[in-house]
Amino acid sequence: MRTSFTVLLISLCVGCGEQPKFVHRAEFEDLAPYAQDYVNQVLQSHFGEPTDMVVWDRLPLKEHTATATVVIDNIPSDEKVKEEEEAAGTPRTSITGPVSVRQLELDLNSQNLDIGEGTELLWLDGPLEGFPSSWVTDWDAETQTVRLETPLHDLPFNGDQVVLGPGEVLVQGRLLYAEHCQHCHGVTGDGNGPTAPYLNPKPRDYRLGVFKFTTTKRENRAAREDLSKVIEDGVPGTYMPSFKLLTQEEMTSIVEYVLWLSMRGELEYQLISLISDEGYSVEAIRERVADGESYQSIRDEFIERVNDPDEFNYEVDTIVSRIANDWEASQSEDALIHPISPRVPYTPESIARGRELYLNESLKCAQCHGEAGYGNGSQIYAVAKMKNGDDYPVPGLHDDWGNLVKPRNLHNGTYRGGRRPIDLYSRIYAGIKGTPMPPFATLVRRSDPEDPSSPLTDEDIWDLVNYIYSIPLDGYLPGQDPGASAPESEGVAVHSFE
Amino acid sequence: MKWFWCCFFTFWPILAVIVCLASPSLGWWFPGASASPLGERIDDLFYMILIISAITFIGTQAGLAYVLFRGAADTDKDPSHKAWFSHGSHELEVIWSVVPAFILLFIALYQMDVWAEYRVKDAFPQQKMRSVLERLGQERDEDSSLALAEVTARQFEWRIRYPGFDPETGDLLPLMPEPQATDLYAVNDLHLPSSSPVMINLKTMDVQHSFFLPELRIKQDAVPGLVIPIWLEANEQRTYQLLCAELCGWGHYKMKARFVAESEEDFLDYLHRLHEEQNYDRVENSEDVAAE
Known about the structure:
heterodimer, A: alpha+beta, Thrombin, subunit H, Cytochrome Bc1 Complex, Chain D, domain 2, 3 domains, six-stranded antiparallel beta barrel, two-stranded antiparallel ribbon, 12 strands, 9% strand, B: alpha+beta, Immunoglobulin-like, 2 domains, five-stranded mixed beta sheet, 7 helices, elongated, transport (chain B), oxidoreductase activity (chain B)
């Protein structure tokens, strides 16, 4: 009794949490210890730990509160200062004591969070570069003027670049992530938080860099708006709830933090795959030793490659560039799916055409979703192959994360990725990334198949979208009232349009 | 020692009364003044019961203190003094059974019409509800539902279905029990007209939840398999909290939503916005494409 009481008392005083730490992928354990050290060192130096983040400027993130350019009208620009210096015969930097400038006009280049009391102001260039940061006491958005806590050491030049609140978006994002997301998605973003074991489907593991519900093209990743839409509206049919009450700033912070976790996870994933492929996994080393190499020589070779800037460092650089470019490209307007023609009106004819396409052998919709759309096509009994070529132990479709996935039952009226026409169009046009749902961009073709110069049309996709909309509604059209006569009308389904 | 116990048992009720009196100014009271006419009447009922309980509590505690101090003083004077032993007094038993019984009966009868108006569908202000729907231009007939939205609770959010607009006339359609092609959907964001009674249907997709509008004093469990009508009338055009008041699972605390009471025009505008959003196909300029 006394012991348990003491334990309780101690835990109350100490608190029950240690600092959150990133965890490694399972494959990390297969690497040789020195390879593990190298992976660790790369991740630590570029990402740090959740409570001690490193902001890496290579990543295309909106990680700062704001970035700005100093605007100084009456204070001389570079050249003027030089002239003055020449005139005075002394270099300007020799002005003794701090200049009593505590107010600065800024031209904001980008702003992600509100600037306010306590925001850090970091000098990126100009005479103040390298000096300790200044701290903001007040920001006047109208005059774009910032007031500082202490006078500046020196006068900045017009056009000096500053960063306000460096990394602040990620810091805020981490706190919000810890509050709202972490218990399912995990500290590392591996979809393995404490509540995850109770969930089906599993929470998203960000570390592949793949997100399912996007409105971007097949080859692109998720746009920021896709992520914020999922956070705002939730994913119906799963445990992901809607976080509608988050403010715009909170949403930005969470999205950036999730992207950061995703980039970190993807770098780790790619780096581990690379090192394993190069023959530094425990298993590969054993084979190499069996072939006559010595442990010591393999280790020396690895260390040599780590120290050679043209070897692993170059590879890390390539991986990061690729990740950064992919994410950046996905944010452009070109990455978004833009249907060619507006949605085809929701009419019995369009629905019937959609149904015909749905049952079309070459599109294979029914193979997974079933002829009647109950998600019970023959593919759910087929044995799928894992990435390494082995069979999955359970028959059925699997996603890139290795989870068993069911083809959607189209009768539920639940649209996980959103119910707007553009959402359904995107699901068909680009498929669902990371899952066996393939893209059907090939349905976009010449409106006149005989004439290669005729305009492109995507009306087939819209017909399919209309058919999918009609399934849970039992084929009723707007204005018709299935409510009162629902019991008698059973079986009237979509077949009535044929 | 006996004086210590006398003070001890007197101290706690006094503290309880002081804390109770101070609590409104400490923010430990209701979540703001009632924001609906029915809520005001519910508050009145609460205050009536509070006053009855307060009188009873102070009376009995004052009696207890009196008996304690009196007994202590008596035994101070004469250590062999014996207290009056009342156990088994038929008269007293009758008094303290009948008086509370009358009080309870009075409360039961007094609250009846508020309860009926709150919960019994026939006692709902149906005429007023109908006129709101007519003012919104809904295409109604005798059998059309009075509900303006269907709120479905699910682990862990509120999904809302509104009737949509007639594609031909552009008028608001009545809410149907089953989903329609024209229906409009929202999540965690309930918009309804203010200043007149409106009805919603409450459902749940999974476990039991509870629809709670603290400022409007509305709380109704959502029970699997049932469609429960609730009506509400927000006095002011503003945003209220919407919470789940039934521990529904590990994510119970995530079921925070907002209820926006707005003017009838703004409500229709909101539905039009939802309609726009829900029919968004990201084709900015269809004429341009057609011309290509």
